[in-house]
Amino acid sequence: MAKVNEPPKPRGLRRVLKLWQVSLAGIGVILGAGVYALIAPAAAEAGGALWLAFVLAGAAAALTAYAYARLGRIQPKTSPEFQYTALAFGPRIGFVAGWLMFVGDISAAGAVALGFGGYLQHLTGIPLTLNGLALVLIAGVVLGAGIAQSVNLAIMLTVVESAGLAFVIVIGVPSWGGGGVLHMPHGLAGVSSAAALIFFAYLGFDELANFTEEMHDPERDLPRALFVSVAATTLIYVAVALSVTALIDWRTLSASDAPLALVARRVLGPRADVALTVVALGATANTVLLLLVSASRSLYGMAAAGALPGQLSRVTRRGSPAAATWLVVAVIALFIAVGTLAQTAFMTDALVLTSFIAVDASLIWLAARRRLGGGAWRRAADMTLGGLAFVMCGWLLAHVGWRGQLAAGALAVTGGAIAASRRMKT
Question: What architecture does CATH give domain 19-420?
Answer without folding.
Answer: Up-down Bundle (1.20)
